[in-house]
Amino acid sequence: MGSERYNENIKLHDNKISKFSMQNGQCEISKVFLKEGTREIHHKNPKALGGSDSFTNIISWLNSKVHKLIHVTDQQLIEKYFNEVKAMSKEKEDKLIKRINKYREKAKLKPISLLNV
């Protein structure tokens, strides 16, 4: 078990637990409590593009619908996911959109607006 891969997994899980604890178990954007199977980690630099699971590269835990909404570009899917996120969150629409767009901007994606959803 002393392999490098094993140590990476321990660090990854430690980083995930730390972020989850820092967020009080809530989605960073919707503020909904994150249940098992409905949460995903959002990375600053995506792993597919060489990003790591380091603490500094893990931005936050997000509800899986919110995470999809950050990355999706199809307008119909944006509307679908936004309506689902809006229905589960007690946050106001403008706050949700502002938070979502902060992440979309970092991903170099077009912001969403109330006019489009």
Q: What's this, in brief?
A:
This protein is mainly alpha-helical and 117 residues long.
In the CATH classification, which architecture applies?
Orthogonal Bundle
The name CATH uses for the topology is: DNA Binding (I), subunit A
Percentage beta strand: 5-15%
Q: How far from one another are the termini?
A: 50 Å
Can you walk me through this structure?
By secondary structure, this protein is mostly helical. The protein has a single domain, classed as DNA Binding (I), subunit A. 47% of the residues lie in helices and 9% in strands. It is built from 4 helices and 2 strands, in the order αββααα. It has helices spanning 4-22, 64-71, 75-88, 93-106; strands at residues 39-43, 58-63. A two-stranded antiparallel ribbon has the order 1-2.
Supply database-style keywords:
117 residues; mainly alpha; DNA Binding (I), subunit A; two-stranded antiparallel sheet; 47% helix; 9% strand; globular; disordered N terminus
Helix-strand blueprint:
Layout: H1 4-22, E1 39-43, E2 58-63, H2 64-71, H3 75-88, H4 93-106
Antiparallel strand pairs: 1-2
Helix pairs in contact: 2-3, 2-4
